[in-house]
Amino acid sequence: MTSDSSETGKTLFKDLNLDQRLLDAITDIGFEHCTPIQAETLPFTLVCQDLIGQAQTGTGKTAAFLITAIQSLLETPIPEKDRFASEPRVLALAPTRELAMQIAKDAEQLCGYTGHNVVTVVGGMNYDKQRDQLQNEIVDILVATPGRLIDFLGSQDVFLDQLDILILDEADRMLDMGFIPDVKRIIRKCTPKEDRQTLLFSATFNQDVLNLASMWTRNAEFVEIEPEQKTAERVEQTVYLVGEDEKLPVLVNYLKRPDVEKAIVFANRRDQCRDLDEDLRNQGVKVALMSGEIAQNKRLKTLDQFKKGSIQVLVATDVAGRGIHVNGVTHVFNYNLPENAEDYVHRIGRTGRAGKTGVSVSFASEDDAFSLPAIETYISQKLKTTVPDEELMAPMSNAPITRKRGGRRPQGSRGQGGRSQGGRPQRQRRN
């Protein structure tokens, strides 16, 4: 969650007529003033207006939709005798496990004094435990990724026809990752849009996303928070013009600089990330890999080590990188320039957060320099390009790993877990 209390003249949370229990949790977290996305959206969402919001990661949109949901739950309590397990009142859909886990963590903090139950269902974690929670607990807020939620809908372990609020976060990423057919199936199981509040957030809006937003919302208010020059003003951006074989030594030598406290290195493909992880480890760097092929429990442990400083560098794919929400990242490295200019913005948005400055270093070789003009056009600025100095070009301590390229490595299959055959009697929507 992100909020900014560094400036006066901003909307104060205490002026929004929030329930005192929710306000106490907001105060405990350290929030006082709303961020722009919160100030623009909450006046609409707190009066049950559907909303379509355009905002980048790190703007405070998560707190905006969670505060809306929790305030609604507090204003419209339902006696426990009228509630059933497996029937959430709020559903937040996110494209990645990491983002869903972060949303759930933020929700639990904001529910610190309200007693509401937050349940998370995501792939890569214990299926039976998640099913038991759905079957046996009164669920107020359900945070889910599409694939795992489809599993539980199919086995009738969760029902969405009593839903009051539907939240769709990072809709553009769900579209990019091919989740929209699953999301459509999920929404068909939800309360009709006339009887629910729908909040949809996306970093970008192409025509496909706009069409989906129109389909799923009703008389929605559109709020757009433009990123500062599409990239953070607090991030110093440099592009090094290098040969492909010069990237690794320049990266290794740069990581030795004392100002590089926490760094994320992005590459375009999983195999490149695997190789980079091995190469940096071979050079004595405290590094860990973040990609979709890493088990979820290991990724969570890695993130915790990164936050605590026992790991200096994360090597990440774009999808995994979107789930990294860690303050204090001093440097972001683009080992390859991304093919999609929007991904450049998301990558460097991992640094320069919470009022701090950050550094973005990109490597452009003849293999990927063609992406540079599109990135500069997208962010509306010319990036500083230079060649590495002698210090950065110095030989590495250890000889680089020599690899023989063969066929593709086998990919792991998605675990299915058990399924229950249970269900519930047909119920009518609450009036």
TrEMBL record:
Organism: Marinobacter lipolyticus SM19
Keywords of this entry: ATP-binding, Cytoplasm, Helicase, Hydrolase, Nucleotide-binding, RNA-binding
Family: Belongs to the DEAD box helicase family. RhlB subfamily.
InterPro entries: DEAD/DEAH_box_helicase_dom, DEAD/DEAH_RhlB, DEAD_box_RNA_helicase, Helicase_ATP-bd, Helicase_C-like, P-loop_NTPase, RNA-helicase_DEAD-box_CS, RNA_helicase_ATP-dep_RhlB
Location of the region described as Disordered in the Swiss-Prot/TrEMBL record: 389-431
Main location: cytoplasm
EC top class named in words: hydrolase
A GO BP annotation: RNA catabolic process
Domain DEAD-box RNA helicase Q: 11-39
Record flagged with keyword Transmembrane: no
Ranges where the Helicase C-terminal domain occurs: 234-394
Tagged with keyword Iron: no
Residue intervals of the Helicase ATP-binding domain: 42-223
Protein name: ATP-dependent RNA helicase RhlB
Role summary: DEAD-box RNA helicase involved in RNA degradation. Has RNA-dependent ATPase activity and unwinds double-stranded RNA.
Cellular compartments annotated: Cytoplasm
Motif (Q motif): 11-39
Quaternary context: Component of the RNA degradosome, which is a multiprotein complex involved in RNA processing and mRNA degradation.
GO cellular component, one term: cytosol
